[in-house]
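Annex B.
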Amino acid sequence: MFTNPWWLLLLVVVAAMAAGYVLLLRRRRRDVVRFTNLELLDRVAPKRPNWYRHVPAAALIAALAVLTIALAGPQAEARVPRNRATVVLVIDVSLSMQATDVEPSRLAAAQAAAKAFADQLTPGINLGLVSFAGTAAVLVSPTVDREPIKRAVDGLKLSESTATGEAIFAAMQSVETFSQAIAGAAADGPPPARIVLMSDGKQTVPGGVMPEEEPRGSFTAARAAAAAGIPVSTISFGTDYGSIEINPGERTPVAVDDASMRQIAELSGGQFFTAATEDELRQVYAELGEQIGYEVRRVDTSRPWLAGGALLLVVGVGSGLALGRRFP
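VWA domain-containing protein: predicted C-alpha cells.
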C-alpha cells in the first residue's frame, strides 16, 4: 500500500532511462566495429571494457527507482502500543479462592498473576481494579500508575458469597466515571475499554432459581456491557476437584464453573479462557495483555527506502568519479 501511489508513474521514466542506456551501449559497440583499420581499432578500444564500468550508471538508475518508491509513501501493517485504552481487572475473592488445588492457593496464584499482568501491560493503558465476593468494590480507579494496583492486589481478603453481576456493573461504572472525567481532554472521545473478569465459581448473589438472569445477575450485566461497547473477557480459574474446609473436618467442593463464565464472555462480546495453574493464568494474562496493549496499524515505511536510495546515489557518484573521474 502507498499513500501517494501516483509517484510510481516516475518508474516509467526510470525504466526508459535504463533502456536508453542499454541502447546507447549497443550503438557504441556498433560504431566501433565500423573501423576497418585494426591498428586504429586497437588504439580506440585496446581491450574489452570490464563489467564494473557499468556500476555507476546501474547504481544511479537503481537509486532513482528506490527513491521513487520512497516518494510514493510505502506502508505496512505493524503492531504498535496503544496510547489510550481502559482496562478494569475484576478478581473474585469469595471463600472458594482459598482452595489449594492451585498451588499455593487459588488466591495467592491469582495475586501473583495479576501483578505480573499489571507490570506487563502497555504503559499507556489505564488499569483499574475491582474485587468481589458478596458485594463488589472498586479498589483502584483506572490509572497508568501500576503501584496502587499491585498494593491493592496484595491486600485482597476473602469473604463469603459470589456476586459476579455486581462486579461487572461496578467495573462498568468505573469505566464510565473515568471516561467522563477525561472526555473533555480527549478530542476523539473516550478511549476503548475492556473488563477482564477472573472467577472460580458460580454466582450465588443474588439468589433465586436463575441468579444469573436476575436484574443484577451476571448474564444481565454481560448484556449491559455489550450494549455499552465494553466486552468482558472471562477467565475460569481452578479445577473440578477443588475443595475448601468451612467447618472443621468438613470439606466442601468448589469446582470451577466454566459454563457460566463462557456465557458471560459470549453475551458481552469478550473472550473466554480457562486456567488450572498459576503458569496457565499468567499465560492467559500475557495473551490478553498482547491483545489489549497493542493494535495493528498501517505505518509509514519510507525511511528504509530513502536510506537505500541515498546509499545507491553515493555509490553511483563515487564509483563514477573513481572509475572515470567524471559523473556517469
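Residues 10-33 form the longest helix (24 residues). The mean pLDDT is 87. Further annotation is deferred to the next reporting cycle.
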